[in-house]
Amino acid sequence: MSKQEGIHVDKELDLSNAGRGVWLVKVPKYIANKWEKAPGNIDVGKLKISKVPGQKAQVSLTLSDAVINLDPEEKIPKDHRLDVSVVTKQTLGVFSHVVPGKSDEVVPESEKLFMEGRIVQKLECRPYADNCYMKLKLESIRKASQPVRRVQSLEKIVHNYKPVSDHKHNIEYKERKKTEGKKARDDKNAVQDMLFNAFEKHQYYNIKDLVKITKQPIGYLKEILKEVCDYNMKNPHKNMWELKKEYRHYKTEEKKDDTPALSDSDSQ
Description:
This protein has helices at 29-37, 65-68, 131-145, 168-184, 188-201, 207-214, 218-228; strands at residues 12-14, 21-26, 45-50, 58-63, 79-86, 93-98, 112-127, 229-231, 241-243.
């Protein structure tokens, strides 16, 4: 964070107009668009308040010809009424601020804030249901009903960039697994020979050691082990594999050591 960003700048609030009552007016979008395009040196409309004794005041808005003619092709209603409602349960205010010019000084000039007044009434601007407004409404409905996407016939080949269906590293990984899988699943007789050779050295093995010795998938290896081996469920050689009796050919005087080749703590 720079030195400039770390400085806390106090803002002064001018409350000289805090007691002034102001109106909050909601206008249709087509009026807001016109006013946004209007330059700052023209009148955008006139507000008229008609008071009749014993009745509620009538408020109307008439847009200026200068605003109406900003876009002659877009016809919008000129006369509108304003429905008034009093703000009673809310405290709303209008604020403005003046941003000081950029300075090379370490401590910038304080930003000035002004309270322009307190909102006392809300007004909603509504057009009269004349022919101009009905045409405007019909055009807005027509535009809203148009589909966002359209079918278009192409006369030339369109060259565009399509998303990658699969990334290179994923393809390489799948090919490597496929190749390794083919190499790992050896012939059944060859796997049995490897097992017999291993059990000539030790009488008991756990499954992890046999996977390392044969380099076979564990599911495939277990299928072969169930045919030629017994799985011990009790101590002292629990969770260890041992050749079935019909495959053993140990000599009595040369009986193999009962200790396992590596660890005997691994499960099946």
